[in-house]
Amino acid sequence: MKATAVPEIAGAYLFEPTPHADERGFFCRTFDADVVRSVGLDPDAFVQDSLSRSVRGVLRGLHLRSGAGEAKLVRCSYGRIFDVVVDLRPDAPTYRNVASFELSGDTQVALYIPAGCAHGFQALTETADTSYRIDRPHDPAEDVTIAFDDPELAIPWPLPVTSMSERDRKAPDLAEALKQKES
To answer: Under a CB-based contact definition with an 8 Å cutoff, are residues 122 and 44 in contact?
Structure first.
């Protein structure tokens, strides 16, 4: 497994496993504490694992947390997703940068997203399972959502949106969401 810094988002990393494939399929390590530690992250900081299943066209996000924020390790464990990170840390050199990735169950690449960044994704396949590791227990009172189609961000979502939560559908634009994040 190797770690690669994401130049568009300071402190973000891609963790790329080395799958061992044969006629049965493949096997790969999807988390390695030593590799995580090698880039200055605490592998013991993750306190909760979650999984979402989405169907083609479903869009989830853009989400972040107020207060101390929330760091995430995100991986598409089955199918494919278009994954987006927006740096909303005012003191970061990459403030307001947007980075996008295609994560796939075929590669099992994981993306580390630092606290203070917004995150969202769209399912590209009929079924897409997305695994998350987060560094704080979830508190719905700290949830902040940004409109997926905010013109300032101009995210090029690859598919028409087929479904999203009511919360995501009613999300405010970036400027309003940033006010919520600070309160």
So the answer is: no
